[in-house]
Write a structure and sequence with these properties.
homodimer; about 475 residues; alpha+beta; 8-stranded mixed β-sheet; 5-stranded mixed beta barrel; 19 strands; elongated
Amino acid sequence: MQHTDIVLLFSDSEKYVGTAVKVCGWVRTSAEVKPMTFIQINDGTTSLKNLQLTIDQTRFDDEEYKLRIKPALPVGTAVYAEGELVASERNVVELLVSEIRVLGECPGDYPLQKKKTSMEFLRTIPHLRLRTNTFKAVFTVRARLSYAIHKYFNENGYKYVQAPIITNSDCEGAGEMFRVTTQPWATDYKTEEEYNSEDYFGCKAGLAVSCQLEGEMAALGGLGRIYTFGPSFRAEHSNTARHVAEFWHVEPEVCFVDLDEIIEIGEDFIKFIIRDILESCKEELAFFDRFVEKGLLDKLNHVVNSEFAKVDYTEAVEILQKSRQKFEYPVYWGADLQSEHERYLTEEVYKRPVFLKNYPKEIKAFYMKQNPDGKTVAATDLLVPGIGEIIGCSERETDLEKLQQAMRDRNMPIEEYTRYLDTRRFGSVQHSGFGLGLDRMVMYVTGMTNIRDVLQFPRTYEHIY
Amino acid sequence: MQHTDIVLLFSDSEKYVGTAVKVCGWVRTSAEVKPMTFIQINDGTTSLKNLQLTIDQTRFDDEEYKLRIKPALPVGTAVYAEGELVASERNVVELLVSEIRVLGECPGDYPLQKKKTSMEFLRTIPHLRLRTNTFKAVFTVRARLSYAIHKYFNENGYKYVQAPIITNSDCEGAGEMFRVTTQPWATDYKTEEEYNSEDYFGCKAGLAVSCQLEGEMAALGGLGRIYTFGPSFRAEHSNTARHVAEFWHVEPEVCFVDLDEIIEIGEDFIKFIIRDILESCKEELAFFDRFVEKGLLDKLNHVVNSEFAKVDYTEAVEILQKSRQKFEYPVYWGADLQSEHERYLTEEVYKRPVFLKNYPKEIKAFYMKQNPDGKTVAATDLLVPGIGEIIGCSERETDLEKLQQAMRDRNMPIEEYTRYLDTRRFGSVQHSGFGLGLDRMVMYVTGMTNIRDVLQFPRTYEHIY
C-alpha cells in the first residue's frame, strides 16, 4: 500500500484510492451502528460530496476510542484522520480509519445543528451559512462562473482592465452615488466647495456605478477590446429581491463592432459561461435542479442550444399591447418596460432569451448611438426567463457633436467629461459594449430567488449583513 | 485567394497570410517613398507588433488617392483598409492595400504626436497614455498577470470569493479607512451615532483595507481554500512612488496548512505567475528589458529557477547589525524593518527573493499565530530585489483565548468581531494565508518604478488622476 504524507484534498479523492492518506475536514453527519461508527466529513474542496470515515471500534482500545470520539462528534467539529482510502459501493470512496483526533470542537450553541433551516434565518448568519450544502453549492457555482468569464475574454483576445472604483464622475448620470470621504462626520465648512477641497482627494469623490467610460477610454486607440470585472455601487433606496448596493459587474468594450455584432458576442458569451458550468458544476446544478428550481437543467440546456430571439422594441410594444395579459403598468411606445413585461415576452411569447433592441432614446443613457430615425438608439437588453433583464448593451455614439447634444439634452456638465470626449476627438471609431450583473447571473443559473443569497455578505439599503 | 468577411484581429495575423482581409486600426507612423506609402497601424490586440499597410499609389486614381490619404495620415487617425495579407521579410506580415478610408480623424492638438514624452507628462493624460508602446505593454502584462493569478488558484482547487468592499470592520486596525456615506456634506446631527443611524446603511460604513477576515470566514468550515481578488483601500497621507489609495489585492486563505506550507504555496504561486508571463508576454518583456530595466529578463528567469531563501527575522537583524552598510534607520531586535533593510537583505546578502519569518509580535497584526517563544508570531514577508516587501503572509491564530487577548492588547473592540471569532468557536482549525499587491507585482515584472504608471487612473493622496 502506498502512503502519502500530504493532507488529501477531497476533490482529488478518486486519484488516491488504495493509498494510506491523511485527511482533515468538518463533520457533516455521524452515526453509530455498533461496533461501527460512520462519520461524513467535508473539507470544502467539494461542495456536496463528503468523505465517509468508517471506524471499526474494535480496532481501538476502549478508553482511547472514547477519548477521541467522546460520546459522539457533533456537526461542525473539525477532525483529522488517517487510514486507507477504499472504493466502496455506489462509486463512493471511504476511509478505513486507523487514527482519528479532534482538531476543533463545536459546542452546543452552534447555529447549524438542525438539518432544516430557513433562508431568512441563514441570512442572519452569513459568516456560517457557507457551511451548508446550498451555500457551498451557490458559492462554488459563483466562483466557477467568474472563472469562466475570465476564460471567455482571455481566450478571445480581450484584456482585463481594472478600472478605478473611486471616481469623480457619474457614468449613468443617475445621481445614486455613495460619497467617499475622510472628513469627520460633523463639519463646519461654510460651503461644499471648501468641504471638498479639504477632503482626501482635494475634490468630491464617490463610488463608481459603472466602469464603462473608463473601459471605452482603455479600448479606443489603446487596447482595442477590453473587459472590466469588479464591484459597482448603487445607493438605491429600494429593498427588493433583485437589488443590492454593491454588486459585481462585467463590462466588455469592443472596438470596430456594431450593435448586431455585439449582440452576437453577448449570445456567444452567455452560452460559453453556461456551457462551462454545465460541465464543471454537474453535482451542484443537479442539486439545484432537485431542491431549488425544478427544471433548471432543462432551462440551461435549452439556452445553450437555442438561438436567442432578436426583436425590435417597437414590435415588442405592439405584441404586448395586442396580448390579453393584464399588466400592472401600462404599455405604450416610449414606456420603459417593467419586469412584468420583460418576463411575459421572454417566458410566454418567445420562451427563450430575447435581445430587445432599438429603444426610445429618452429612456436610455446619453452615450448610446442615435439611430437614423431620430427617435431610437442602438441599445439592446437581453431578457431571460425568470429574471427579466440580465444584460444592458449598446453601440456607443462616436460622433462628438451628437454626443455633446445628448449630454446637453440631459443637463449634464460637459466640462467634466473632457477626457471621455477626447476619445471622440482623436481617432474615434465604432465600438460597442455591454454590462452583465454577475449576481443576477448566479441567481439565473442556480435558481436562487433572492440576490441576498448569492453574495457572501450582501449590502442593501439599511443593511450591512 | 481566400476572402474573409470579418475584421481581422492583429493578434491573429499569422493565421490569415495569403488571404484577402479587412482591417481597422490606429496610425502609429506613416512614411511616403514615392510611389509607395507605408503606414504602420495597430488595433490594440497586439501591444507592440503593428501591421504595415503598403499602398502602391499607382493603383489608385490620383484624385481618389488624395481624397483618402489627404496629404498624410497623422498619428492617431483611425483607418479601415482592405487588401491581401502577405508575409514580408523579417517574419513580418503586411497588407497590400486595395481599399483604404479614414474612420476617425486625429487633429493637430493630439497630445501624443511627439515620439518622446516624459512619464510625468503622460500622467497628466491617463486617458490617452494607453495608446503608447510602454503603456500598451504595461497593461497587457497587467491583464495577463491577473489571468495567471486566476488560473493558478482555479487549477489548484481554490474558490474565488468576492468579499464586500463596503464594510463596517477595520481588518488591520490601522484606522486608515475611507468613510462611505450618502449624507449631505453639511450636517447638523448632534451626535455621531445619530449621523450614522440616519446614513444609508443605518451604521457607519467604510471601504475595506483587506478582505482577509471575510476570506477566513469563507474558508473555515465552508470552502476550505479560497482567494479574494479585488480592490482594497488605504487612506494613507503619503505620496510615494509605491503608495496608492486604491490598489488591487490578492488574498488566498488555506485551511489545514501551517506557516512553512503557506510559504511553499507562496513560492509556487509567484513562480507560476512569472513563468506564465515569461511565456505569454515575450514581446512586452523584451521591450521592458531593453527600454525600462536592463537585466529584467535575467532577473525574472533567476526568480523562477532559484529556491527562495527562508530566514528568521532574528537572524536577519544580526546580519544587518554585523554588516558595514550605513542605514538611515537603526536596526535592533523589535524594529519594523524599513525598505532599505529589506532591499539590502534581498539584493546584497541573498541575491534572490527572501521569506523573512517569525517577526516580533508587537509589530504585526492581531490575527497572527503566536509562537511558543511568547515573543514572535508565525508571520513572514516575501522580500524581492528592487521592491522590498511584496507578500505579507502568516499562519493565523486559531486559539480563541489567545486571539481575544491579542485584541485586548491592541485595544480593539472585541464585540465588533463576534462573527470572526465564531470561526474559532465552531470547529477551529489551523489555517494560513497571504496578501499580494497586484500593482507592486506589475512594477516588479515590468521594471516600472512608479506605481502611478501601472494603474489606469491612479488614486493617490490629494489626486484623482
